[in-house]
Design brief:
homodimer; 323 residues; alpha/beta; 12 helices; magnesium (chains A, B); cell membrane (chains A, B); metal-binding (chains A, B); cytoplasm (chains A, B); metal ion binding (chains A, B)
Chain lengths: 323, 323
């Protein structure tokens, strides 16, 4: 039916087709949550897939909207879950890229008011960007609290310690039209293993957009900025050489489309294949950007594809140590 | 110019024109904040205007989106600020009308999870609607907290004690499609005398709409439901007999238009006459619903209009006491 109506995308692929695809791509971009792991549990086979890709000379990059931990902690997490060959330079989180944006694009002169976790603050500090220190005064209200005089940006990310006071302070800072309004990502919610959900940054941004009457600049997927960070670090990347693999149509697939990558949906996370097919069959042309080119059940489906793929020569042990 | 382009509305009126208008109307509907008072300070002359209208036999009704206090407290506040003849039955707050909606329209069987102030909970209790009691456990998180099994509605109003946990709990309850999603009002923010702003219910609703992927039913202005409550209490009200007076184009004027009332903007609150004129001159026909028919600087401009207006006979003192 798909063919008859000229639909494309959502192609479920296996071993040999995956092999051809991987042969054609130099950069493999992975989302993390729902693709590589669920919380503290790695997707079965994911570690082997990642190390095989690296061993086969692919540039493997992790592009995550999760702003709650600094990149350093990601390296530890990768290691803890059995991904022993992932390095800091391969990790592009929305907190890291937000810090780059504030430092290199905005060139912010003044303090940043952060709604977010400590990990986000740590990334800003690493980049030399001062954040407003929050006094822990239980009696403070928006009527009586101090507001910092030199706040030049409000940055919103996931914050499980959000309070009304933080929201109110951010709204007040944003009254200054010169105060930049930035968001790490726009994820609306996150699934928990219990079946419960966690409101995401997108939820907090919506609150602040309504209170301030302004629109936030979003750093994370599906915005292109994270690709600009990747491209800048790798000194130019041809989008045609990139494959974006993710579990969320509205962030990962759209990010891939926005950047001109081939895209792959893995069914171990948020989005179902039926939703992808619905977008594909929709008459709205904008929905086509949400349709993955390829679909796999899990990235473990890559494993048979490596059989017979040419491996890059291992560097000598001596050299490896000196790196 | 206005005439040449066929614009209507935004008519600035004074003494004799106000008198004619009042003569034509039986119901005078007032917003409170920015119209009658600013916080704890009455607008100069407002108390005299209200008591003159009542003395002249008008049905004076207060229609407020402010959900933070029960109606009883409004009576006290009116009295405290010199409005000594305002009674409970004249007050239609978004919390009171939300309680009526849950009781009489939804006929909710189960508990209501409330994001809001104590005043909102009190109105629900008055209407016999049980609310989820919140345990005050500082260690509770959405990962480990209890969720009530019988929540049939989430009601969101202004809440200066909002926490991430409340937002997360509400998002979880709303995963049940049979759980009603209700909001007292959609006010985006409120001005404080310090020049600061307070995020309004509309801000919190936006957060929850994004996290839940659902749209809230809004009780307060500009929704028509509060007029249905008024009309039900007064056993039928002809909209042509009503004048809505408010300070906010997007709530008060739109509410009036939605209900078929004549509308009047008073310039003692949020909206400026320039904004009203912008809406009037706009090519978007939907914007016309935001344009007030009349504009006054303050409702104190009514005072000269009462001179020579026929007063209703005062009831005898004996009768007054027995009421």
């Amino acid at each position: 039916m798909a063919g008859a109506f000229g639909f494309k995308g959502c192609q479920k692929i296996r071993g040999p087709q995956i092999r051809s695809l991987l042969e054609a791509k130099d950069y493999i971009l992975f989302d993390c949550d729902g693709v590589i792991w669920h919380g503290e549990k790695a997707i079965t086979g994911a570690a082997k897939v990642v190390s095989s890709l690296i061993r086969h000379g692919k540039n493997v990059v992790f592009v995550t909207n999760n702003s709650t931990r600094p990149r350093e902690n990601y390296v530890h997490k990768f290691c803890r879950l059995g991904f022993t060959d992932v390095m800091l330079e391969q990790i592009f989180s929305s907190s890291y890229c937000s810090a780059l944006y504030l430092r290199d694009v905005v060139k912010v002169c003044g303090q940043v008011f952060v709604i977010g976790c400590d990990g986000l603050r740590r990334e800003l500090q690493e980049a030399g960007i001062p954040c407003v220190e929050e006094a822990d005064d239980p009696d403070a209200t928006i009527y009586n609290c101090a507001l910092a005089p030199d706040v030049k940006a409000v940055l919103v990310g996931h914050d499980d310690q959000l309070t009304f006071l933080k929201l109110a302070k951010a709204s007040c800072y944003l009254r200054d039209p010169d105060c930049v309004f930035l968001a790490t990502d726009n994820d609306p919610w996150h699934p928990l293993s219990s079946g419960r959900i966690l409101p995401g940054s997108g939820s907090l941004i919506a609150a602040l957009e309504v209170a301030s009457g302004r629109k936030a600049t979003v750093i994370g997927k599906p915005s292109r900025f994270m690709f600009e960070c990747i491209s800048s670090q790798f000194r130019g990347v041809d989008p045609a050489q990139c494959l974006m693999i993710g579990d969320r149509l509205e962030t990962d697939m759209l990010f891939g489309s926005n950047c001109g990558f081939d895209t792959m949906l893995t069914l171990t996370g948020v989005s179902q294949i039926e939703e992808a097919q619905e977008y594909r069959n929709s008459e709205l042309t904008t929905n086509q950007s949400l349709v993955p080119d390829y679909v796999v059940d899990t990235i473990a489906d890559f494993l048979p594809a490596f059989e017979g793929l040419e491996e890059q020569e291992e560097p000598e042990e001596q050299e490896e140590k000196s790196n």
